Amino acid sequence: MLQKSKAFSGFSVDDIKRAKIFYQDTLGLTVKDNPMGLLELHIKGGNAILVYPKPNHTPATFTILNFPVSDIEKTVVALTEKGVVFEQYKDLNTDEKGISHNEGPLIAWFKDPAGNILSVIQIDK
């Protein structure tokens, strides 16, 4: 029934202006204002992701966006230089930069200004 639907995702933040600055200036994404007071994050190969303000926002306790990258070390260093702080998880074997070296691909988690969890994940070249 929905197999031909071009689905899209969305998530909430507590401060739409701070979110716009973070996603546009820090992460370098194309961000557009939506007439309904929302933000549209435009990512390669997909539909826009809606970001909406929510006064009683509670950060997601799971990863809401994963960004595949070809060189996680380079990406983590570049984002750290822009002020992004990577999470440290002992049970996920993160190194001093926040990169997890468990089985599977290398991955590092960080939070947006609203506390939502995002990641960069290394893909095979």
UniProtKB/TrEMBL annotation:
Residues 5-123 form the VOC domain. InterPro entries: Glyas_Bleomycin-R_OHBP_Dase, Glyas_Fos-R_dOase_dom, VOC_core. This is VOC family protein. Signal peptide: none annotated.
